[in-house]
């Protein structure tokens, strides 16, 4: 083994106890199962053709995951978001994300007709809007596109550290 390779490997092994891989929580594992459904709902609510940036272009699903995963977030709301998406999947036989725009609209209107579905859609819309107009430091509102679409700007002083990282 050459000296350079030995030194590199030694330094990696020496640091290995300090390197930590991200361990997925139970919530994150469950979220990954329903993420395509939530993303499809968000994209349907805020499509590419609207006056404001699309949900897809703003990284809103990742923002939602990080927000709900935070230790300070209400556990009941976290469970409600998961269960609501699972319910929509069940109602639509797991095909919601594959449906046409027209069929998605019908499915969401029917779901909205139930109190549970109405509350769930309201929560998803609230979290999506929060993502679209939050400070870009939180990983959404890419290039301040949400603010620019409204002719607005974020609060001052701007955060220097993500709240999630605190």
Structure description:
With 166 residues, this protein is mainly α. It has one domain. Helices cover 58% and strands 0% of the residues. The protein has helices at 3-15, 26-45, 60-69, 75-91, 101-112, 115-133, 145-150. Mean pLDDT is 86; it is low at 15-21.
N- to C-terminal distance = 43 Å
Which segments are poorly predicted (pLDDT under 50) over 5 or more consecutive residues?
Answer: 15-21
**Rg measurement, Å:** 20 Å
Overall structural domain count: 1
Average of the residue pLDDT scores: 86
Summing up helix and strand content along with how strands pair, one would put the structural category as: mainly alpha
Shape by Cα distribution: globular
Q: Count the DSSP helices.
A: 7
Helix content: 55-70%
* H-E string: HHHHHHH
Largest sheet: none
What would you call the quaternary organization?
A: single chain
Strand content: under 5%
Give the tally of β-strands. 0
Report a brief summary of the structure:
With 166 residues, the protein is mainly alpha-helical. The chain is built from 7 helices and no strands.
Notable traits:
166 residues, globular
Helix-strand blueprint:
Elements: H1 3-15, H2 26-45, H3 60-69, H4 75-91, H5 101-112, H6 115-133, H7 145-150
Helix pairs in contact: 2-3, 2-4, 3-6, 4-6, 5-6
């Amino acid at each position: 083994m050459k000296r350079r390779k030995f030194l590199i490997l030694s330094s990696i092994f020496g640091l290995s106890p300090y390197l930590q891989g991200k361990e997925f929580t139970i919530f994150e594992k469950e979220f990954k199962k329903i993420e395509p459904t939530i993303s499809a709902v968000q994209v349907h609510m805020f499509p590419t053709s609207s006056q404001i940036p699309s949900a897809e272009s703003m990284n809103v699903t990742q923002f939602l995951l990080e927000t709900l995963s935070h230790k300070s977030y209400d556990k009941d709301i976290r469970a409600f978001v998961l269960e609501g998406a699972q319910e929509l999947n069940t109602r639509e036989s797991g095909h919601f994300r594959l449906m046409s725009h027209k069929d998605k609209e019908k499915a969401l209107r029917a779901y909205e007709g139930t109190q549970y579905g109405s509350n769930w859609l309201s929560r998803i819309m609230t979290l999506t809007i929060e993502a679209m107009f939050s400070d870009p430091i939180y990983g959404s509102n890419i290039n301040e596109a949400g603010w620019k679409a409204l002719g607005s700007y974020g609060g001052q002083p701007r955060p220097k550290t993500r709240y999630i990282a605190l």
